[in-house]
Amino acid sequence: MNRIALITGATSGIGRATAVTLSQNNFDIIITGRRKELLEDLEKEIKSKSSGKVYVLSFDVRNKEEVDKAIDSLPQDWQDIDVLVNNAGLAVGLNHIQEGVIDDWERMIDTNVKGLLYVSRKVSPRMISKNYGHIVNIGSTAGKEAYEKGNVYCGTKHAVDAITKGMRIDMLKHKIKVTAINPGMVETEFSLVRFKGDKDKSDSVYKGFTPLYGKDIADAILYVLTRPEHVCVNDMIITATAQANSLYKIVD
Ligand code: NDP
Ligand code: 8X3
Question: Which residues in the chain come in under a pLDDT of 70?
Answer without folding.
Answer: none
